[in-house]
Amino acid sequence: TTEALHTFLLVCLSSGEIVVNEVNFVRKCISAESSQEDLWGKLICTNFKVSFILQDAPPKQSHLSHLLLGEHDIPLTCLEQVVTVNDTRGKKKVLGSNQKLKFNPTELILYCKDLRILRFCFDEAGPESAKKVCLAIAHYSHPADLHLLFGFEYQGRRYHESKGTYVNGSTPRGGLRTPIFDRPSDWDREIKRTSASGWRVCSVNESFDISKSLPEYIVVPVSLADQDLKRYSIFFTDQRLPLWCWNHPNGSALVRMASITITFDINRSDVFKSDLDKCLPNIQDIQSSFVKVRHICVIDPFEESEERWLSSIETSRWLEHVRAFLKHSAEIVYCLDGKNASVILQEEEDRDLNCVVSSLVQLMLDPQYRSLTGFQSLVQKEWVMAGHRFLDRCNHLKKNDKEESPLFMLFLDCVWQMMNQYPAAFEFTETYLTVLSDSMWIPLFSTFLFNSPKQRAQHLIDFAKNKAIPAGEDQAVYFPPVWDWSQQFSTKDQTLFNNPMYVGKGAACVQNGEVKTFTRTKRNYSSSVRATPSSLRNGLKGGEETLTRRGSLLSELKPDFSPVKVESPSERFFRDLFSQPADQRGLLIPLLMPSHVALWKLYFLRWVPEACIPKGGPITAFHKLSQLVDEIEILQSQLRQYKGPSPGSTPLPSPGGPPVNQRRMYFKASPQNDPPTPPDFLTSSFPFTPMGNLCRRSIHGTPISKFLNGARIWLSTETLANDTV
């Protein structure tokens, strides 16, 4: 029909996407205080998303633009709750799948897993049409089975539409640079990179013959034969053999394992076993605290005072859990780096807490994992292929709330804490981490859809048969992981992931007029930390501290530490580490006092209008640094072009720097004589916008500008100096 064609032209539909219901004359609420800024348009439900099409042409966006989702779109898998309201009758109902609605809704509220709250009013819309679209949204956001998620339809269509660009994987892994760890060669490279000569790649679990939750290829000690591994596997939960994670240059290894059904004592001074179930919060505690902090940040109004609000954040215990995981990871780092001891991380199923701690330990020890590709390989290795239950923990099918827990979100928050303290050590930005967290709720990538490598492999084999994809085609090509960011963002928008301050491997610097790149040596890991006695460090005698705030980590890691006592080896290790400036390309341990662990504002407060500071927040520094780095790189390019064929020749003037589409920074250098002032669209929420993404039914309270600007005026100097647990 003409109406259907008109809708199709207005809605940006992806391959395989269809409109299932729609309603006209809908008002999207922007503010709870007034309806003057509200937007009018059409509300549409497809088999992929909820879409709001503006009645008038929208203004040009000046923030992150998704290639598959419009500014007013929300994926169905991102919906936490679908709530219908009838104000005139005083009724409210949370809708599930295949439910009836006995009243005509006057309002629809969508609570989203990325912390958005969207409100739509139907005062001018047809009541029956409004009811139908609400029921459609509720139904399609509760898929009955995994294969009904939109990604299976989308990727099948996309493969056949683009198969002319590659033939049976002729483009290696679809051009993907991040290793997937579904083949022996990926593990071999990691063994060689870490010089793990005592370990080998083993195919004993090929076709998932031993354990359905382990990858097909695992790394095991050279001294163990395949037959021994098969025999020992029966003693572990789900027959999960221990997994090698990483090797230290000193020869110690990081290993993770499930609980074992027989009692044995390692009893070796060079091996340390850590039972994470006994010393860290469980998945229910983590879920409970996340629900609380989410409620405080986006649902509760900011009332009374900043101090009261911060106290509420503290009582949620979310930051306490973040600190607990960082602290335990630092203790594991001491065992590996300070004691030269191998570490076994043990957890009942080895699929939740172990994922967080093993990843953080490697992030602290190995600068490779602080590069963008290295970080993605770490997530792929320690989360995806290690069998983290993304399907259950994300609750994509909304079947079991008890299994839901934001373990991966907790990990990303821990990573952000380290980035916040060591801003030059990471190649990627907090925008990248936030976008990665959002990608969990977009069901188009294989990364976050499955509970195990076996489930992933089996579903993708069935998917390939159903979509007539040739046998033997690479799964990473026909159902790609999230790491191919060109699926979601333009090349320009992907430059928002690049940290202008990064000083890691491959980052350029200027020394003596020449452009050089940093290289990583084994000394970066540990020897530099203990290079000189602490009594002579920085030319000072014992007892004099140049970095007292950094040294205070000792009392956090060992609260009973007193200068009167004889230092333990671990206390000496951390004292030596924190008594000198941090090596951003070496071992990094985060500061763990309560005042050092902060709320991740870009993630938790990006949609909150009251929290949005025009031309404020960390983005202003990012803007200026990006412009500076872009200018330096242009000058470097021009210098290279000015090199003549011989010393006596006169070089021709260079037309300029590298092409715009090859420049790494999002913000480009300002023209000469043009002051590099922040553009008007910059806010503390950039590259996101609160406009229309968080509308509570009522708002009270006072602004929290002091908190948002990072001030701690309610904490005395004495409090900061004597910070305790």
Can you put this structure into words, describing what you see?
By secondary structure, the protein is of the alpha+beta class. The chain is 33% helix and 12% strand. It has helices at 2-10, 127-140, 150-162, 184-193, 226-233, 276-279, 283-299, 306-316, 318-338, 353-365, 372-384, 390-394, 407-421, 430-439, 453-466, 475-478, 491-494, 548-551, 553-557, 569-578, 601-605, 619-642, 705-708, 717-721, and strands at 19-28, 39-46, 49-54, 73-75, 79-86, 91-95, 107-112, 117-121, 199-202, 218-221, 243-247, 253-258, 271-275, 342-347, 508-511, 514-517. Strand 2 (39-46) and strand 3 (49-54) form a beta hairpin. The relative contact order is 0.10. Residues 1-16 form the signal peptide. Belongs to the protein-tyrosine phosphatase family. Non-receptor class myotubularin subfamily. This is Myotubularin phosphatase domain-containing protein.
In short:
It comes from Scophthalmus maximus (Turbot). The chain has about 725 residues and is of the alpha+beta class.
What is the strand arrangement across the widest sheet? 4-3-2-1-8-7-5-6
Largest sheet: 8 strands, antiparallel
State the shape: globular
For the secondary structure, the number of strands is 16
* Uncertain ranges: 166-171, 508-552, 558-562, 699-725
Strand content: 5-15%
End-to-end Cα distance: 66 Å
Rg over CA atoms:
27 Å
Structural class: alpha+beta
Binned, the helix content reads 25-40%
Average the pLDDT over all residues and give the rounded result.
84
Q: Total helix count?
A: 24
Domain Myotubularin phosphatase: 181-604
Protein name: Myotubularin phosphatase domain-containing protein
Signal peptide: 1-16
GO cellular component, one term: membrane
